[in-house]
Amino acid sequence: MPYAWPKQFAAQWGLGNDWFDASCSGAVVDGRGTNTFGQQIDAASRSMGSRTELVTIQFAGNESYGGSGRSAAWSVGLCVLDFVNGCDNAADPTSVRPDAITSAELQRRLTAGDSGNIIGRIRQEAPNARIAIVGYPTVLPSDTSVCLPINGLEVPDFQPRAAYARTVLDRIEVAQRQAAAALGVEFWSLRQATAGHDACQPLGQRWITRIGDFHEELLPFHPTRTGYGAQANALTAYRTR
């Protein structure tokens, strides 16, 4: 994706070709087959070495937890769309339980999951690099409602009972922060830098796409082009600290 934050990030630093982007939409740490962090590390390892200054990792939303049959991202999406039952709790029995999203679980996945010891491998192959777990932007508003456009019309309270969705996103942020501290790596949060630009803000102010946002070519509940740029700006500020 030519406008995702890693590419804008590198452009802001003037890195030219002296960087590598192994990111892949939908990739998971725990999971076998295609599209895994293990494969991403394999690809990135050819570009890592003693000159490497920084390695960023953004993960947790595509993972499933607690034996759930669905990922956290799918669980949130299904919940938001369940306007019959509401979204105070998971809409589907196979959805992720928020209490299963823990720091210990993220630590395990980064050190002893299906993709192997990701943190250990990065430290071995890029011994002088800073390692940073990057959080997610502010996706939903501060209350417990979620808006949605239907046939081009705004429906501000399409899902007025979205407590579960917010809880899952909050648990991911907390688990990421705590896991980073326990593993001795940095945590770069995007929450504050993207506050007030969630999916329910007016067009032009929101930096998160929604189901039915046909003016954007991106996946629902993912950053817009402007949103990716804002994330790159925020992460560049972290880099200079």
Explain how this protein is built.
With 241 residues, this protein is α/β, with parallel strands linked by helices. 36% of the residues lie in helices and 10% in strands. It has eight helices and five strands. It has helices at residues 5-13, 37-45, 72-81, 103-112, 118-125, 163-183, 191-194, 225-239; strands at 54-57, 130-134, 146-150, 153-159, 186-188. The protein has a three-stranded parallel β-sheet with strand order 1-2-5. A hairpin with a 2-residue loop joins β3 (146-150) and β4. The longest helix is centred in the C-terminal third of the chain and has 21 residues, at 163-183. The protein is globular. It starts with a helix and ends with a helix.
SSE blueprint and pairings:
Elements lengths: L4 H9 L23 H9 L8 E4 L14 H10 L21 H10 L5 H8 L4 E5 L11 E5 L2 E7 L3 H21 L2 E3 L2 H4 L30 H15 L2
Parallel strand pairs: 1-2, 2-5
Antiparallel strand pairs: 3-4
Kindly provide the radius of gyration, computed on alpha-carbon positions and rounded to a whole number of angstroms.
18 Å
Mean pLDDT: 87
List low-confidence stretches: none
| Tally of strands | 5
Shape: globular
Strand order of the largest sheet: 1-2-5
Q: What is the N-to-C succession of helices and strands? A: HHEHHHEEEHEHH
How far apart are the first and last residues' alpha carbons, in Å?
A: 27 Å
* Strand-pairing-aware structural class: alpha/beta
Q: Give the biggest beta sheet.
A: 3 strands, parallel
Tell me the number of helical segments per DSSP (H or I, 4 or more residues long). 8
Q: How much helix is in the residues?
A: 25-40%
Report strand %. Answer: 5-15%
